[in-house]
UniProtKB/TrEMBL annotation:
<keyword id="KW-1133">Transmembrane helix</keyword>
<feature type="transmembrane region" description="Helical">
    <location>
        <begin position="180"/>
        <end position="202"/>
    </location>
</feature>
<feature type="transmembrane region" description="Helical">
    <location>
        <begin position="321"/>
        <end position="340"/>
    </location>
</feature>
<dbReference type="GO" id="GO:0016020">
    <property type="term" value="C:membrane"/>
</dbReference>
<dbReference type="InterPro" id="IPR014743">
    <property type="entry name" value="Cl-channel_core"/>
</dbReference>
<protein>
    <submittedName>
        <fullName>Voltage-gated chloride channel protein</fullName>
    </submittedName>
</protein>
<keyword id="KW-0472">Membrane</keyword>
<feature type="transmembrane region" description="Helical">
    <location>
        <begin position="296"/>
        <end position="315"/>
    </location>
</feature>
<dbReference type="Pfam" id="PF00654">
    <property type="entry name" value="Voltage_CLC"/>
</dbReference>
<dbReference type="InterPro" id="IPR001807">
    <property type="entry name" value="ClC"/>
</dbReference>
<feature type="transmembrane region" description="Helical">
    <location>
        <begin position="20"/>
        <end position="43"/>
    </location>
</feature>
<keyword id="KW-0812">Transmembrane</keyword>
<dbReference type="GO" id="GO:0015108">
    <property type="term" value="F:chloride transmembrane transporter activity"/>
</dbReference>
<feature type="transmembrane region" description="Helical">
    <location>
        <begin position="373"/>
        <end position="390"/>
    </location>
</feature>
<feature type="transmembrane region" description="Helical">
    <location>
        <begin position="223"/>
        <end position="244"/>
    </location>
</feature>
<feature type="transmembrane region" description="Helical">
    <location>
        <begin position="49"/>
        <end position="69"/>
    </location>
</feature>
<feature type="transmembrane region" description="Helical">
    <location>
        <begin position="145"/>
        <end position="168"/>
    </location>
</feature>
């Protein structure tokens, strides 16, 4: 018999060290993401209560954000791009200054009404923490193992979906390729970070859906069509984000002027659009989507627009929670046309738009299971596969690599 080549198997001594490393990174990242997440939730509540006093100063908050990065670490301003560069060997260092900078700038973005997410911050925090352990390992690909472990810890600590966090970190760096060399420390770290942040009191969003229709041929076809709609929406988010960034850089090359002018425009637009309905994470739209409250037919479009503008201007945060909100609110609108349960279609949109925009397959399916119930996986799998297959040529992560296979 021919032995299987152990391409990502480590000696037992290294394996034990990696498991301990995963435990330590999970505890550190779980604690830090709890601090970040709990303050962010408090900021969201306080902003909602004082929106009229805070929203006009979004542009000034942007000035502070740009100053902090320009003065303390221009390299850290790359954010997720820097994490990808280090993981791909194109850069060698994630500065420790990234940690306070990305936390403070994201808090400022949300405090004054910017429409942004939070997962990018958590992933950066985990990567920055794990990167500090680089000097303790010397085996091949140890840089990638360390970063994948930290990214998984950040996602798990913030969202408390350990299985989804595990596979998100394993698959997000390269389309069509799992970074299995980091499997063990990532497994240890996601459950550590998730459990520790939960123990410290960070909230987790769950909404178990009871209604489960029979998976007939007709329902199967409907979910395929829904996957197309969600895939188109994820693509639209990426395309608009890339276009707006290019236009902002072209017409407003000075970062101070760019964030100030766009920030002032955002303040006015967000105040006029249902007075702050599209500010912040978008958790209000998610909650309304799953509680039979008012969802407008244009909610997903305006949330998509305000989020892409906010990030193009240079404000900090992430895209994932707004993508969840965009998908869920779109699902509420589409469900009646397909004659399917509203909550189930909203849940499918919640994960499928995220799948399309990030070019991840397994993580969105597992988010569906961990948030809405694993008995719905057959439905979630259909829409996610279609939305994922519909894209794979662009991503919110510009440095995501693709596994190219010559089929000729």
């Amino acid at each position: 018999m021919i032995p299987i080549k152990e391409s990502y198997q480590h000696p037992y001594s290294v394996t034990i060290r990696l498991a301990v490393f995963g435990l330590i990174v999970g505890l550190m990242t779980g604690g830090l993401t709890t601090l970040f997440g709990r303050v962010l939730l408090w900021i969201g509540e306080w902003r909602t209560s004082h929106l009229s006093a805070l929203l006009p100063f979004l542009g000034l908050a942007g000035l502070v954000i740009v100053f902090l990065y320009q003065h303390f670490s221009k390299e850290a301003q790359k954010g997720m791009a820097l994490v990808f560069e280090v993981a791909h060997g194109e850069d060698r260092k994630i500065p420790s200054s990234l940690i306070p900078l990305v936390i403070l700038s994201t808090w400022l973005t949300h405090l004054f009404g910017g429409s942004a997410g939070r997962e990018g911050v958590a992933v950066q925090l985990g990567a920055a923490i794990s990167h500090q352990f680089d000097r303790f390992f010397t085996f091949p690909k140890h840089e990638q193992v360390i970063l994948v472990t930290g990214m998984a810890a950040g996602f798990a600590g913030l969202f408390q979906t350990p299985l989804a966090a595990l596979f998100f970190a394993l698959e997000v760096l390269a389309i069509g390729q799992l970074q299995l060399y980091a499997l063990l420390p990532a497994l240890v770290t996601v459950y550590t970070a998730s459990s520790f942040s939960h123990l410290l009191g960070l909230e987790k969003f769950t909404h178990v859906i009871v209604t489960t229709p029979e998976l007939t041929v007709s329902v199967f076809v409907k979910y395929i069509l829904l996957g197309l709609f969600f895939g188109l929406t994820g693509n639209a988010f990426i395309s608009l984000q890339q276009y707006l960034k290019k236009q902002a850089l072209h017409y407003l090359p000075n970062p101070y002027w760019r964030i100030t002018i766009i920030g002032l425009m955002l303040s006015l637009a967000i105040s006029l659009a249902h007075f702050g309905r599209y500010a912040g994470l978008g958790t209000n739209l998610i909650e309304q989507s799953f509680s039979n409250q008012q969802i407008y037919s244009y909610d997903f479009l305006l949330k998509l627009l305000f989020t892409t503008i906010t990030l193009a201007a240079g404000f900090q945060g992430g895209e994932v929670t707004p993508l969840f909100a965009i998908g869920a609110s779109l699902g509420v609108i589409l469900a009646p046309f397909f004659g399917l349960p509203v909550e189930l279609v909203a849940a499918a949109g919640y994960i499928s738009v995220f799948a399309s925009a990030t070019n991840t397959l397994l993580a969105p399916i597992l988010i569906g299971g961990e948030v809405f119930g694993f008995h719905h996986l057959p439905f979630f799998t259909i829409t996610v596969i279609i939305s994922y297959q519909f894209n794979r040529k662009q991503s919110i992560y510009g440095l995501q690599q693709a596994l190219v296979i010559d089929v000729e």
